[in-house]
Amino acid sequence: MKTITSIALFILCLVAVQPTMAQQSNTPGITTSSSVSGTLSESQKIDQLIESIRGMKGATFIRNGTEHSCQEAAEHLKAKLEKHGDKIKSAEDFIEYLATKSSMSGEVYKIRFADGREEPTGEVLLKTLGQLK
After folding, report:
1. Which pTM does this prediction carry?
2. I need a surface site. Which of 14, 93, 112, 128 has the fewest CB within 10 A?
3. By its UniProt entry, which InterPro entries does this protein fall under (predicted)?
């Protein structure tokens, strides 16, 4: 009985401590602490959006008319975030200012899915963001 009580006490301690732990971010200007309710910080949301692109199976990222793998797309978006992160305050900012179109040509980024349909990357990321909230 003493062992069960010790285990229960240990679990209670873990549950009480975990929500107050905050993750650190290397991205300047983005809020990094999670609230006690367990919601994601803006930095965590952006990371999740980038990882959602990276994890797309059979999809192709189209940037300035050139096809790229989703791995390359994720790296490109991450590089843009590192370069311009001080101007980005939210996941919505990230989508609108960095992940929707080329800052050089103005061309909209697109994703071609395995079934052949194409969607603007910004729209795909807004849907994904909606699922994160």
Report:
1. 0.71
2. 14
3. DUF5329
